[in-house]
Amino acid sequence: MPETTRASRNYLSLVVNGRYIKNFQLTKAVIAGYGSKLMVGRYPMGVINIEMDAALVDVNVHPTKAEVRLSKEDQLSHLLSEAIRTRLAKENLIPDALDNLPKRERYDLDQLELTLNKISPKTMPSVQPQQGQQLRENTTTNLADTAAEEPTPAPTSPDLEIGDLDDQPIFKEPQRLAAWDQRYQRLASNVVPTLVADEPEPDISHVESAERFPNLTYLAQVHGTYLLAESGDGLYILDQHAAQERVNYEYYRQAIGEVSNDQQHLLVPIVLDYSAADAISIRDHRDVLESVGLYLEDFGQNSFVVEHHPTWFKAGQEEDTIKEMVDWVLRDGRMTVAAFREKTAIMMSCKRAIKANHHLDDRQARALLQKLPECENPFNCPHGRPVLVHFSNTDLEKMFKRIQDSHESGEMQA
Ligand SMILES: [Zn+2]
């Protein structure tokens, strides 16, 4: 699951027709399926077991035969990303506040690492769940069925059985998943409006509250940084910056995807000077810059002039914003339009989000809580940090010794 991660890709294993393989593109596809649910620089752990027509696999590429060549690699990659994305979209990914404490998490990860090291690649597909946090995205895909296969809902896949998830503390309400599915499809095309205090709020009153997301009642703000909220199943603490970053991000991702001719003219054009090499690189990447509505016109040998910019730029920060975006393509010469748009959306959502130590009034706090469940992924900020953590009623009762913990004897001593 997205909250159990490692700093390298090496904990992600691919098995094709029972053989442990390495394939960079498929690994990338798995990570892409997680999207912003992963922290920046963190990678998922797990075993992806793929069964496909043997005729599509050429094992003779690398002497160790770990690197195989696959026909239809692109389709398979797409299928993998979509299957993981669809599956994760169904989950309530709010970390339990107590599980999230570093002490306990380290314990779980060490145990899991030990388990992984002991297992030889051959036996990996049949790894049985151990205690503690587990990753079970064991996505089985039959490539022969590519054309017919839609990303399948969980209940039909034996490895992703919903009932199977019952014992995991974070999935508290599997019965709500079906309701969420319906809602998710309705909302997929909706734009989530930004929450900025000085802008009028568009009317979105007809969007139902999310079923997988708790119905939060705002309680209070802490240190101008966190929001406290309650629902029937416990207490929630939200990071207000992460929450608003998420709301903004989904808005900008949409706005940036639809490059409109809606441009703001600058009273004073911005002139940017670069080295000769950088100027060449900028000219090479004009298409990427223009994909989000950024137009750099030649202005002498190594200089450019910008006369207008997309309307979603933040007033007063136009020049810094443009320079930052140009830097991205200078630093990564192979940046794709998709990656550039994604970075732009994250940057804008951060620039426009309320910062820590900023006191919201009750109305603003409530508005934020109301917009959050409308997000496609209300659980993480675009950088992958959690938006909210949950103290379940049981957690609270345990903390105050209102109930005895009879069957988890080992964990309650601290
Ligand atoms: Zn963030």
Could you characterize what this model shows?
The chain has 414 residues and is α+β, with helices and mostly antiparallel strands. It folds into 3 domains: 5-168, Ribosomal Protein S5, domain 2 (2-Layer Sandwich), CATH 3.30.230; 178-252 and 355-411, MutL, C-terminal domain, dimerisation subdomain (formyl-coa transferase, domain 3, 2-Layer Sandwich), CATH 3.30.1540; 259-352, Ribosomal Protein S8, Chain: A, domain 1 (2-Layer Sandwich). 33% of the residues lie in helices and 16% in strands. The protein has 11 helices and 14 strands. The protein has helices at residues 24-34, 73-89, 102-118, 177-187, 240-257, 276-284, 286-290, 318-331, 337-352, 362-371, 393-399; strands at 5-6, 12-16, 19-21, 43-44, 46-50, 57-58, 69-70, 217-222, 226-231, 234-239, 263-273, 297-298, 303-310, 388-392. The strands form 5 sheets. A 4-stranded antiparallel β-sheet has the order 8-9-10-14. A 3-stranded mixed β-sheet has the order 3-2-5, with no helix packed on it. It has a 3-stranded antiparallel β-sheet with strand order 11-13-12, with helices on one face. Strand 9 (226-231) and strand 10 (234-239) form a beta hairpin. Helix 1 packs parallel to helix 2, helix 5 crosses helix 9 and helix 5 crosses helix 10. The longest helix is centred in the middle third of the chain and has 18 residues, at 240-257. It is flat and about 75 Å long. Bound molecules: zinc ion. Zinc ion is lined by residues 242, 245, 381-383, 385. Zinc ion binds at residues 242, 245, 381-383, 385. Keywords: DNA damage, DNA repair. InterPro entries: DNA_mismatch_S5_2-like (IPR013507), MutL/Mlh/PMS (IPR002099), MutL/Mlh/Pms-like (IPR038973), MutL_C (IPR014790), MutL_C_dimsub (IPR042120), MutL_C_regsub (IPR042121), MutL_C_sf (IPR037198), Ribosomal_Su5_D2-typ_SF (IPR020568). One of its GO terms (biological process) is mismatch repair.
